[in-house]
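quick one, 120 residues, struct below
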Amino acid sequence: MANKFCVSLTHSKDNTDKATVAFVVANAAVGSGKETMVFLSVEGVRLAQKGVADGIHEEGFAPLRELLDNFTKAGGTIYVCSPCFKKRKLDEHNLVAGATIVGGAKLVEFLSDGSPCVSY
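---
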């Protein structure tokens, strides 16, 4: 069994509940000692931009900015879908700490070792 875990997130401000829960699960995985990766695609790529997660706070959960920061500080990796990012004309010089713009092959590589993946 792989010691990896993947969270695929396609939402940001368009569905703050899913965005928040995705990072709650990602934090649980990295906190359990799993090599954890969040793959941001579609609207989720917006969370790779500084300031986008600020002010998002779903009732019953920690603020999204805090969840993102805790995830990267714990060693989690954030991969950002390059075509999705470019389509939205986002600024590659304004990435949050720990975010890397990658192609889909990086996701395939991560999953090919048998990593489970949940999607939000």
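The CA atoms of residues 1 and 88 lie 37 Å apart.
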